[in-house]
Amino acid sequence: MRKGKSSAASGRGKTSRKISRSSGKDESKPKRSVQSDTIRTKPSPRKEFAPGRAKSYPKPKGKESQPQVADTLAKEGPIRLNRYIANSGVCSRREADNLIRMGVITVNGKVVTELGYKVNPGDNVRYEGKLLTAEKPVYILMNKPKGYLTTTRDPKERDTVMALIGNKVRERIYPVGRLDRNTTGLLLLTNDGELAEKLSHPSHNVKKIYKVELDRPIEAADFDKLVKGVQLEEGRAVPDDAAIVSDDRKTLGIELHIGWNRVVRRIFEALGYEVRKLDRTMYAGLDKRDLPRGKWRHLTKQEVIRLKHYR
Question: S-S: 9 plus which of 43, 112, 213, 281, CB 3.0-4.6 Å?
Fold first, then answer.
Protein backbone atom coordinates (compact mmCIF):
# COMPACT_ATOMS: atom_id res chain seq x y z
CA MET A 1 0.00 0.00 0.00
CA ARG A 2 1.45 3.35 -0.94
CA LYS A 3 1.86 6.25 1.43
CA GLY A 4 -0.37 9.30 1.11
CA LYS A 5 1.14 12.77 1.30
CA SER A 6 -0.08 16.31 0.87
CA SER A 7 1.26 19.75 0.21
CA ALA A 8 -0.08 23.23 0.82
CA ALA A 9 0.52 26.58 -0.78
CA SER A 10 1.67 29.40 1.47
CA GLY A 11 1.62 33.11 0.56
CA ARG A 12 2.65 34.07 -2.98
CA GLY A 13 5.61 31.71 -3.24
CA LYS A 14 4.93 28.30 -4.72
CA THR A 15 6.41 25.91 -2.25
CA SER A 16 5.55 22.37 -1.31
CA ARG A 17 5.49 21.70 2.41
CA LYS A 18 5.95 18.30 3.96
CA ILE A 19 5.63 17.29 7.59
CA SER A 20 8.86 15.59 8.66
CA ARG A 21 8.79 11.78 8.88
CA SER A 22 10.78 11.74 12.09
CA SER A 23 9.43 14.68 14.09
CA GLY A 24 6.19 15.85 12.51
CA LYS A 25 7.69 19.29 11.85
CA ASP A 26 6.86 21.38 8.81
CA GLU A 27 9.71 21.64 6.30
CA SER A 28 9.69 23.84 3.22
CA LYS A 29 11.61 23.46 -0.03
CA PRO A 30 10.91 24.38 -3.65
CA LYS A 31 9.36 21.71 -5.85
CA ARG A 32 8.90 21.83 -9.58
CA SER A 33 6.99 18.59 -9.93
CA VAL A 34 4.52 16.58 -7.88
CA GLN A 35 4.91 12.83 -7.49
CA SER A 36 2.06 10.63 -8.60
CA ASP A 37 1.33 9.39 -5.06
CA THR A 38 0.96 12.95 -3.63
CA ILE A 39 -2.51 14.07 -2.57
CA ARG A 40 -2.74 17.86 -2.57
CA THR A 41 -4.77 19.75 0.00
CA LYS A 42 -6.77 22.79 -1.04
CA PRO A 43 -4.47 25.85 -1.17
CA SER A 44 -5.36 28.65 1.20
CA PRO A 45 -5.88 32.11 -0.35
CA ARG A 46 -4.56 33.77 2.80
CA LYS A 47 -1.01 35.01 3.13
CA GLU A 48 0.25 32.69 5.83
CA PHE A 49 3.19 32.52 8.16
CA ALA A 50 5.09 29.34 7.31
CA PRO A 51 6.07 27.64 10.60
CA GLY A 52 8.78 25.60 8.94
CA ARG A 53 10.56 28.79 7.88
CA ALA A 54 10.60 30.29 11.35
CA LYS A 55 14.01 31.79 12.02
CA SER A 56 15.91 30.31 14.95
CA TYR A 57 17.00 32.67 17.69
CA PRO A 58 19.31 31.94 20.60
CA LYS A 59 17.57 31.06 23.84
CA PRO A 60 18.36 32.81 27.10
CA LYS A 61 21.01 31.19 29.27
CA GLY A 62 19.55 28.69 31.72
CA LYS A 63 16.30 26.83 31.26
CA GLU A 64 14.40 29.19 33.49
CA SER A 65 16.20 32.52 33.06
CA GLN A 66 14.05 35.68 33.10
CA PRO A 67 14.38 38.33 30.36
CA GLN A 68 15.27 41.85 31.48
CA VAL A 69 12.00 43.83 31.52
CA ALA A 70 11.89 47.33 32.98
CA ASP A 71 8.99 48.27 35.19
CA THR A 72 6.35 49.76 32.91
CA LEU A 73 5.03 52.47 35.17
CA ALA A 74 8.40 53.64 36.42
CA LYS A 75 9.77 53.87 32.90
CA GLU A 76 6.80 55.31 31.00
CA GLY A 77 4.94 57.23 33.69
CA PRO A 78 1.12 57.33 33.45
CA ILE A 79 -0.49 54.57 31.39
CA ARG A 80 -4.08 53.89 30.33
CA LEU A 81 -6.21 52.14 32.92
CA ASN A 82 -7.17 49.27 30.60
CA ARG A 83 -3.50 48.53 29.98
CA TYR A 84 -2.81 48.56 33.73
CA ILE A 85 -5.64 46.06 34.29
CA ALA A 86 -4.36 43.82 31.48
CA ASN A 87 -0.82 43.98 32.86
CA SER A 88 -2.16 42.81 36.22
CA GLY A 89 -3.14 39.52 34.58
CA VAL A 90 -6.91 39.91 35.05
CA CYS A 91 -7.96 40.00 31.39
CA SER A 92 -7.25 41.51 27.98
CA ARG A 93 -7.44 45.27 27.30
CA ARG A 94 -10.72 44.86 25.45
CA GLU A 95 -12.24 43.00 28.37
CA ALA A 96 -10.77 45.61 30.72
CA ASP A 97 -12.72 48.30 28.85
CA ASN A 98 -15.91 46.38 29.63
CA LEU A 99 -14.99 46.22 33.34
CA ILE A 100 -14.40 49.98 33.35
CA ARG A 101 -17.78 50.62 31.69
CA MET A 102 -19.47 48.40 34.28
CA GLY A 103 -18.11 50.57 37.08
CA VAL A 104 -16.32 47.76 38.93
CA ILE A 105 -12.88 49.44 38.79
CA THR A 106 -11.81 52.02 41.37
CA VAL A 107 -8.71 54.21 41.40
CA ASN A 108 -7.73 55.67 44.77
CA GLY A 109 -11.17 54.84 46.16
CA LYS A 110 -13.19 56.42 43.30
CA VAL A 111 -15.12 54.55 40.62
CA VAL A 112 -13.69 55.24 37.17
CA THR A 113 -15.79 54.72 34.01
CA GLU A 114 -13.71 56.84 31.62
CA LEU A 115 -12.04 54.56 29.06
CA GLY A 116 -9.10 56.87 28.42
CA TYR A 117 -8.30 57.35 32.11
CA LYS A 118 -4.61 57.11 33.00
CA VAL A 119 -3.05 55.84 36.22
CA ASN A 120 0.19 56.99 37.82
CA PRO A 121 2.84 55.13 39.81
CA GLY A 122 1.51 54.54 43.32
CA ASP A 123 -2.19 54.72 42.38
CA ASN A 124 -4.43 52.26 44.20
CA VAL A 125 -6.34 50.33 41.53
CA ARG A 126 -8.95 47.77 42.57
CA TYR A 127 -11.28 45.38 40.78
CA GLU A 128 -14.38 44.63 42.87
CA GLY A 129 -12.38 45.62 45.94
CA LYS A 130 -9.32 43.50 45.10
CA LEU A 131 -6.04 45.38 44.77
CA LEU A 132 -4.42 45.05 41.33
CA THR A 133 -0.69 45.24 40.75
CA ALA A 134 0.75 45.82 37.31
CA GLU A 135 3.18 43.00 36.57
CA LYS A 136 5.98 42.80 34.10
CA PRO A 137 4.91 40.63 31.15
CA VAL A 138 6.05 37.02 31.29
CA TYR A 139 6.06 34.57 28.37
CA ILE A 140 6.77 30.89 28.98
CA LEU A 141 6.93 27.99 26.54
CA MET A 142 6.33 24.55 28.03
CA ASN A 143 6.65 21.05 26.62
CA LYS A 144 3.65 19.63 28.47
CA PRO A 145 3.86 16.01 29.64
CA LYS A 146 0.95 13.58 29.76
CA GLY A 147 -1.30 13.57 32.82
CA TYR A 148 -1.41 17.32 33.54
CA LEU A 149 -4.49 19.54 33.24
CA THR A 150 -4.21 22.78 31.28
CA THR A 151 -5.64 25.06 33.96
CA THR A 152 -4.42 27.21 36.83
CA ARG A 153 -6.22 25.15 39.49
CA ASP A 154 -8.37 22.04 39.72
CA PRO A 155 -11.15 21.56 42.32
CA LYS A 156 -10.32 17.84 42.42
CA GLU A 157 -6.69 18.70 43.20
CA ARG A 158 -5.34 16.84 40.18
CA ASP A 159 -1.97 17.84 38.72
CA THR A 160 -2.04 20.99 36.59
CA VAL A 161 0.62 22.55 34.37
CA MET A 162 1.14 25.18 37.07
CA ALA A 163 2.70 22.49 39.27
CA LEU A 164 5.52 22.25 36.72
CA ILE A 165 6.18 25.98 37.11
CA GLY A 166 6.04 25.85 40.91
CA ASN A 167 7.12 29.00 42.74
CA LYS A 168 9.78 29.93 40.20
CA VAL A 169 7.51 32.54 38.60
CA ARG A 170 5.87 35.07 40.91
CA GLU A 171 3.66 36.67 38.25
CA ARG A 172 0.13 35.36 37.77
CA ILE A 173 0.48 33.53 34.46
CA TYR A 174 -2.10 31.29 32.82
CA PRO A 175 -2.21 28.92 29.81
CA VAL A 176 -3.08 30.22 26.35
CA GLY A 177 -5.58 27.80 24.88
CA ARG A 178 -5.88 24.24 26.09
CA LEU A 179 -4.32 20.81 25.66
CA ASP A 180 -6.16 17.71 26.86
CA ARG A 181 -4.87 15.99 29.97
CA ASN A 182 -3.43 13.15 27.87
CA THR A 183 -2.13 15.38 25.08
CA THR A 184 1.52 16.36 25.17
CA GLY A 185 3.53 19.12 23.53
CA LEU A 186 3.84 22.86 23.25
CA LEU A 187 1.87 25.14 25.54
CA LEU A 188 2.27 28.89 25.98
CA LEU A 189 1.71 30.54 29.37
CA THR A 190 1.65 34.29 29.97
CA ASN A 191 0.14 37.17 31.92
CA ASP A 192 -0.21 39.24 28.74
CA GLY A 193 -3.98 39.27 28.32
CA GLU A 194 -3.90 41.07 25.00
CA LEU A 195 -1.53 38.59 23.38
CA ALA A 196 -3.42 35.64 24.87
CA GLU A 197 -6.66 36.93 23.37
CA LYS A 198 -5.02 37.46 19.98
CA LEU A 199 -3.54 33.97 19.83
CA SER A 200 -6.78 32.35 21.02
CA HIS A 201 -9.11 34.18 18.63
CA PRO A 202 -10.07 32.13 15.53
CA SER A 203 -9.70 35.15 13.23
CA HIS A 204 -5.90 35.12 13.67
CA ASN A 205 -5.59 31.58 12.28
CA VAL A 206 -2.79 30.50 14.62
CA LYS A 207 -1.21 27.41 13.10
CA LYS A 208 -0.53 24.29 15.13
CA ILE A 209 1.15 21.07 14.01
CA TYR A 210 0.35 17.76 15.73
CA LYS A 211 1.90 14.31 15.58
CA VAL A 212 -0.90 11.74 15.77
CA GLU A 213 -0.52 8.02 16.51
CA LEU A 214 -3.57 5.88 15.69
CA ASP A 215 -4.74 2.49 16.92
CA ARG A 216 -4.51 1.02 13.39
CA PRO A 217 -3.18 1.93 9.94
CA ILE A 218 -5.20 4.60 8.19
CA GLU A 219 -6.86 3.48 4.97
CA ALA A 220 -6.21 5.40 1.76
CA ALA A 221 -9.90 6.29 1.43
CA ASP A 222 -10.00 7.65 5.00
CA PHE A 223 -6.85 9.70 4.45
CA ASP A 224 -8.51 11.22 1.39
CA LYS A 225 -11.55 12.10 3.54
CA LEU A 226 -9.23 13.66 6.12
CA VAL A 227 -7.58 15.88 3.50
CA LYS A 228 -10.92 17.02 2.09
CA GLY A 229 -12.34 17.76 5.55
CA VAL A 230 -14.40 15.95 8.18
CA GLN A 231 -17.83 17.14 9.26
CA LEU A 232 -18.04 17.87 13.00
CA GLU A 233 -20.69 19.49 15.16
CA GLU A 234 -19.27 23.00 14.65
CA GLY A 235 -18.78 22.56 10.91
CA ARG A 236 -16.33 20.99 8.45
CA ALA A 237 -12.82 20.60 9.87
CA VAL A 238 -10.36 20.92 6.97
CA PRO A 239 -6.65 20.49 7.76
CA ASP A 240 -4.21 23.03 6.33
CA ASP A 241 -1.85 20.12 5.66
CA ALA A 242 -1.69 16.41 6.43
CA ALA A 243 0.72 13.57 5.75
CA ILE A 244 1.35 9.94 6.69
CA VAL A 245 4.79 9.89 8.30
CA SER A 246 5.38 6.24 9.20
CA ASP A 247 5.70 3.09 7.11
CA ASP A 248 2.99 1.32 9.09
CA ARG A 249 0.55 4.20 8.29
CA LYS A 250 -0.33 4.60 11.98
CA THR A 251 1.48 7.92 12.50
CA LEU A 252 0.39 11.13 10.81
CA GLY A 253 1.25 14.80 10.89
CA ILE A 254 -1.61 17.27 10.74
CA GLU A 255 -1.54 21.05 10.60
CA LEU A 256 -4.58 23.02 11.76
CA HIS A 257 -5.57 26.55 12.68
CA ILE A 258 -8.99 25.48 14.01
CA GLY A 259 -9.30 25.95 17.77
CA TRP A 260 -12.32 23.77 18.49
CA ASN A 261 -12.30 21.63 21.63
CA ARG A 262 -10.55 18.25 21.13
CA VAL A 263 -10.70 18.88 17.37
CA VAL A 264 -7.87 16.49 16.38
CA ARG A 265 -9.20 13.57 18.40
CA ARG A 266 -12.74 14.16 17.15
CA ILE A 267 -11.62 14.29 13.51
CA PHE A 268 -10.16 10.79 13.74
CA GLU A 269 -13.02 9.49 15.88
CA ALA A 270 -15.39 10.59 13.11
CA LEU A 271 -13.31 8.50 10.68
CA GLY A 272 -13.46 5.46 12.97
CA TYR A 273 -9.99 5.64 14.55
CA GLU A 274 -8.77 5.99 18.12
CA VAL A 275 -5.94 8.43 18.81
CA ARG A 276 -3.43 6.60 21.00
CA LYS A 277 -0.93 9.49 21.28
CA LEU A 278 -1.25 13.16 20.42
CA ASP A 279 1.66 15.60 20.57
CA ARG A 280 1.68 19.28 19.57
CA THR A 281 5.04 19.83 17.92
CA MET A 282 4.64 23.42 16.74
CA TYR A 283 2.57 26.41 17.90
CA ALA A 284 2.48 29.83 16.20
CA GLY A 285 5.95 29.31 14.74
CA LEU A 286 7.47 28.05 18.02
CA ASP A 287 8.87 24.52 18.18
CA LYS A 288 10.16 22.04 20.79
CA ARG A 289 13.82 22.27 19.83
CA ASP A 290 16.03 21.87 22.92
CA LEU A 291 12.97 21.70 25.19
CA PRO A 292 12.61 18.25 26.82
CA ARG A 293 9.23 16.88 27.91
CA GLY A 294 8.08 18.42 31.20
CA LYS A 295 10.48 21.40 30.94
CA TRP A 296 9.81 25.06 30.22
CA ARG A 297 11.69 28.22 29.35
CA HIS A 298 11.10 31.94 28.95
CA LEU A 299 10.69 33.17 25.39
CA THR A 300 13.44 35.34 23.97
CA LYS A 301 12.76 38.98 23.15
CA GLN A 302 12.80 38.11 19.44
CA GLU A 303 10.27 35.32 19.91
CA VAL A 304 7.91 37.66 21.79
CA ILE A 305 8.15 40.21 18.98
CA ARG A 306 7.34 37.54 16.41
CA LEU A 307 4.30 36.41 18.41
CA LYS A 308 2.98 39.95 18.74
CA HIS A 309 3.29 40.44 14.99
CA TYR A 310 2.10 36.96 14.09
CA ARG A 311 0.04 36.76 10.91
Answer: 43
